[in-house]
Amino acid sequence: MEFLDLPKRTSGTRTYGITSIVDFGVPLKELENILYDYGHIIDIAKLGIGSAYLTPNVDKKVSLYKKFDIKPYCGGTLFEKAYYQNRLPEYTEYLKSLGMDWIEISNGTIEIPLEERLNLVAQLKKDFHVIAEVGSKDVNKEMSTSDWVDEVWSLLEAGCCYVITEGRDSGTSGIYDKSGLIKSDLVDELLKEIDCNKIIFEAPLPKYQMYFINKIGANVNLGNVKLSDVLILEAQRCGLRCETFFMEQNECKLLL
């Protein structure tokens, strides 16, 4: 029975308001139990880092996610490993053999020039839905705000479905500084220049999730969410936590 006025959430096959979880190896049966209850509030599942390459029954895990209408893909580290070893054709065949039709292009660990990444998007979008990630995992590598905006814009223009802002699972790189503080000026500039519905902000901790919900609205796209935090995040989106308590029905800000 519903009796509260809550922020209106997108539903069904969402194009924004996305929750993208990171799977670091949850066992298959445990995952099935989690998805039975919470699959409807998960949209995308990243098999974190290069873990998919070592995951037992990875094909069954991919099929399980798809059964719940969740889009699975492999973390960018596996893409970068394949790129580094000149194995991209083998990698894409591997993804196809698993039934994956989403692929991430990133340069978090190795340097891949933007022009090269744009060429890869042009090639891979023929067979996959492409997600790109901007930002380095190295906390000592800094990008200017203008470079961030240029890269995100260019990757979207090249045909990416979404661009992820790097944050790691620790919240200590990319859009966060090494102490874990959000680079709010950078976020402000991205929101001013880019359609926020096309950005997935990596927000691995509830405090970051609350920041983006309060700043953008209940239907902000959030990534690197832990499976154990999925229900907490949905409660936050719906104004059912102290820090988002006063969100109203009309406060779902879409910065288009």
Automatic annotation (TrEMBL):
SUPFAM superfamilies associated with the record: (2r)-phospho-3-sulfolactate synthase ComA
Domain of life: Bacteria
InterPro entries given in the database record: Aldolase_TIM (IPR013785), ComA_synth (IPR003830), ComA_synth_sf (IPR036112)
Pfam family, one: ComA
PANTHER family in alphabetical order: PROTEIN HEAT-STRESS-ASSOCIATED 32, PTHR48413
Family from the record: Belongs to the phosphosulfolactate synthase family.
Name the record gives this protein: Phosphosulfolactate synthase
Organism, as annotated: Siminovitchia terrae (Bacillus terrae)
